[in-house]
Design goal:
Blueprint (H helix, E strand, L loop, with lengths): L6 H7 L9 E9 L4 E7 L4 E7 L7 H19 L9 E7 L2 E7 L4 E2 H4 L7 H20 L2 E2 L8 E3 L5 E3 L6 E2 L19 H4 L6 H17 L9 H10 L5 H4 L5 H10 L11 H25 L6 H15 L4 H17 L27 E9 L3 E4 L2 E5 L2 E7 L1 E9 L2 E2 L3 E5 L9 E6 L4 E3 L4
Helix pairs in contact: 4-6, 4-10, 6-9, 9-10, 9-11, 10-11, 11-12
Length: 446
C-alpha cells in the first residue's frame, strides 16, 4: 500500500466504495496497484477499522475475478492468525459485486516509507525484524506462508511497533492449490526457489526477511537490478555486497546473520523463524559484549580478549557459539585483575563487568543464561539491578531463583520469577520476554 500522492490517483479513489452500511465516515488512507484502503467507523462494534476494496472500473474485467479471489485468499489466510504483530482481518464479502475486506486499523507508516529518510540504526532495525520474525514464527506454525514479505508489507508506528500485513498471495499449507509453475511474490524480495517458479516454504519467507533487513540497514536493495530480468538473475546467481561494506555500523555478527538468511540454498538458511530471531538476539548481545571487551582490551598487554571475541564472531556464522567459549572470553577479561593490570580509571579491586553479565565474579559452573526480550525495547532489571537493554541472548546469573523486570519509558512490567538451572546454557537459555502492548509476559510457545 502506498500513499495517494497524485491528483489522478486521488480522483480514482474518491468514488465511494460499496460496503455494508454499518461502516461510516470513509476517508482514503492509501492506494495500491489493485485497490484502495479506507478508514471507517464500525457502528455495530464502535471501533475504527481499515477497509480494502477494489472498484470494478479500476481493473480490466478479465483480471477482476482473479484480484477478487486474491482478496478472499488474503482474508482466509489472515483469519487464521491472531498475533500482536500481524494486522487482523475482521470480515470479507461483496456488495454489488465489489469485494471488500475489513481489517484492523493501525496508525503507522510502511517500512518502505520510513526508509525514504535513510537506513535505520542497527539496534532499531533488529528490533523491527525481531517482531517480524515472531509474527512469521506464529504464522508458519498455523500453516500459513506469507510469500510476499517486503518493506511495503511491514507497518511501523511511532513507538516502533511492527505489523505484518497483506497475505494476498499467502499459501495455506493444508489447502489444495491449483497453482502451476509460476513466480509468486515481488522479484526484488523473492527467494531463488520462488524465482524458479516453485511454491517455496517457510524458509522462503526468511530469505525475504533477510533481504528486508539488508535494505533496512543499508538503505539500498540487496538485488537492485534496473529491470525484472536483471533482478531475477541477481536473486538466482549474485551475492549482494556485504551489508557491512555499505554501512560500517553493521557489526560483523549482524552481517553474518544476513548472509546466512539470504543464502541461495534453503537448507543453508535458518531452519525456522525462531532460529532467525535467536541469531539476531545473539548478534546484538555479542556486539555489546565485544564493544565492552574492546574498551578493556586497549589496556591489556596481550591480545587474548580480541582474539577470543573474533572467535565468537566466526562461531556465529557456523552457529556454534558455546558456553565454554563465552566463559573463556570472560576469563580473559578477568585475567588483568589477577595480575594487577587494571585500567587506570578503575580503582584497584573494582569489578568491571561486561555489558549484560550479572555476577561475573561467581564461578562459571554456577551461572546460567537468561535470554531477555521486550516489545518495544526496554531496560532489564534482574533482582532490582540494571543489566542493560533488550534484546540480549545471554544474561548470566547465578543458579537459583531471581526476579526479572522490564522498564519502557515510564512503564514497568510486573516482577517475573525465574529459576535458572545448569541446563540453561548459551545454546538453551531460559527465556523471559514481555509485551508492553499486550501487557503480559510472552512464553516461547506464543
Amino acid at each position: 500500500m502506498t500513499r495517494v500522492g497524485s491528483a489522478e490517483a486521488a480522483a480514482s479513489a474518491s468514488v465511494p466504495p460499496r460496503v455494508p452500511e454499518r461502516y461510516q465516515g470513509l476517508e482514503i488512507l492509501g492506494q495500491g496497484a489493485m485497490g484502495v484502503v479506507y478508514k471507517a467507523h464500525d457502528r455495530d462494534l464502535d471501533r475504527t477499522v481499515a477497509i480494502k476494496t477494489i472498484h470494478p472500473s479500476s481493473v480490466a474485467r478479465s483480471d477482476f475475478e482473479a484480484i477478487a479471489a486474491r482478496l478472499c485468499r488474503e482474508a482466509m489466510a489472515a483469519a487464521r492468525l491472531a498475533h500482536p504483530s500481524i494486522v487482523a482481518v475482521y470480515d470479507v464479502g461483496r456488495v454489488s459485486e465489489t469485494p471488500y475486506i475489513v481489517m484492523e486499523y493501525f496508525t503507522g507508516r510502511t517500512l518502505a516509507e520510513v526508509l525514504e529518510a535513510g537506513p535505520l540504526p542497527p539496534a532499531r532495525a533488529v528490533h523491527v525484524m525481531l517482531q517480524v520474525c515472531r509474527a512469521l514464527e506464529y504464522a508458519h506454525a498455523q500453516g500459513v506462508v506469507h510469500r510476499d514479505i517486503k518493506t511495503s508489507n511491514i507497518m511501523v508506528d511511532a513507538r516502533w511497533n511492527a505489523k505484518l500485513t497483506d497475505f494476498g498471495v499467502a499459501r495455506i499449507l493444508d489447502k489444495p492449490t491449483s497453482e502451476t509453475k509460476m513466480m509468486i511474490g515481488t522479484p526484488a524480495y523473492m527467494a531463488p526457489e520462488q524465482a524458479r517458479g516453485t511454491p517455496g516454504d517457510a524458509r522462503s519467507d526468511l530469505f525475504a526477511v533477510g533481504v528486508v533487513l539488508y535494505e533496512t540497514l543499508t538503505g539500498v536493495k540487496a538485488f537492485p537490478g534496473d529491470d525484472v530480468a536483471t533482478v531475477l538473475d541477481e536473486v538466482l546467481h549474485v551475492d549482494p555486497v556485504p551489508a557491512r561494506e555499505r554501512n560500517f555500523a553493521v557489526s560483523p555478527a549482524l552481517d553474518a546473520v544476513i548472509r546466512r538468511a539470504i543464502d541461495k540454498e534453503p537448507d543453508d538458511r535458518y531452519r525456522d523463524a525462531a532460529a532467525f530471531a535467536e541469531a539476531l538476539m545473539q548478534a546484538a548481545a555479542i556486539e555489546r559484549t565485544t564493544t565492552g571487551v574492546g574498551t578493556l582490551a586497549s589496556y591489556l598487554r596481550g591480545r587474548t580478549v580480541v582474539l577470543a571475541a573474533a572467535a565468537i564472531l566466526v562461531a556465529i556464522v557456523a552457529g556454534i557459539v558455546t558456553t565454554p567459549l563465552m566463559e573463556r572470553v570472560i576469563a580473559a577479561r578477568d585475567e588483568p585483575r589477577k595480575t594487577g593490570a587494571l585500567p587506570p580509571s578503575s580503582p584497584a579491586g573494582t569489578s568491571v563487568p561486561a555489558p549484560g553479565v550479572v555476577d561475573a565474579q561467581q564461578p562459571s559452573a554456577k551461572r546460567g543464561c537468561v535470554s531477555v526480550n521486550a516489545v518495544p525495547f526496554a531496560k532489564v532489571y534482574v533482582d532490582g539491578r540494571p543489566v542493560g537493554e533488550t534484546p540480549q541472548a545471554c544474561v548470566r546469573v547465578r543458579h537459583g531463583q531471581h526476579s526479572v523486570q522490564f522498564q519502557w519509558a515510564t512503564e514497568h512490567s510486573p516482577e517475573y520469577l525465574i529459576t535458572v538451572g545448569k541446563e540453561h546454557t548459551a545454546e538453551n537459555p531460559l527465556r523471559a520476554s514481555y509485551d508492553f502492548k499486550a501487557g503480559r509476559f510472552v512464553s516461547s510457545t506464543d
